Description:
alpha/beta; 11 strands; Arc Repressor Mutant, subunit A
Amino acid sequence: MRSMQLKHLRTFLAVASTLSFTRAGQKVHLAQSSVTEQIQALEADLGVALFERSQRKLALTDAGGKLVEYAESLLALAADARAIVAGDTELRGSLTIGALETLCAHWLAPMLADFQGRHPGLQLDLQVAGTGALREAVRDGSLDLCFTFTQPPPDSGLHSECVGSDELALLVPAGHVLGELASVGPQHVAGERFLVTAQGCAYRGMFDSAFSTRGFPLPQVAGEYGSLGAIVSMVRARFGCALMPRLAFAGLDAGIVALPWEDGTGRVGIHMAWRPRQLPPALRRFQDAVRQKGLGLHHPVSTVDMQYAAGGEAVAHEEADRVGNVADAADAPNR
């Protein structure tokens, strides 16, 4: 058996993440024929088939699935070794991060800009999607890291850490009778109509658990909406109330009053999730930066712990599709 080559492992990971020789070649800048040759050479070195090939699809074998984690670790260690030997502390390569649109726009963006400014040699790519799609992308290697409002369930195969939290707030139109209160809770809104997102969305889970965890029945739902911006606009138009994190309506609060939920103790956690593996230097450094910067929003998550509030992976509904272009949706009535 010949020794494995790092370039073969890099190509293998590209094929494993795309399940396509063509897309893998684009990812590692090789012709499809070169990708095929490298995979065949790696399989010959290991003496096992790494992929099941058919006319319709490509799939990892059991052996291929086991190799993924080791290949990632070996490449990360090789990158560490090169940097240490060269005395190079500058981060290079690329880092692909995903998050809910709400977190991208108002929480993650300043940290990304600061990190990129301190490490100009590193390419930072940001993708927006819903909770389920983000976690799946982390699992298959398309993303290095993702941020959501919910903690992955124990059987997700991901590591996670709460790196911040955001305050829940009740949104009412200007002049609403509740607007005079310093804080509100379930006991204050029994007769109110609420505007919500659809079942399975993380924001709907926040709404449901805000009442169920305190033993209160859910108030009347006036309607389900596919956009947080549309909900804010409908609140402004006096159609009902809404409950959401402050990050979700940042910059859109004209004509509404945002009241702290449960004296500000009603909070939702911001969770960072990644694959268990030997982490590359850029990912470790970025995680440390998030831990430091994220503390500005971090408080103990109490009243609404969104860990499994919406039934574990039920929160995998595509929140990004629901958020849409929040600013455009909110401004629509004024055009």
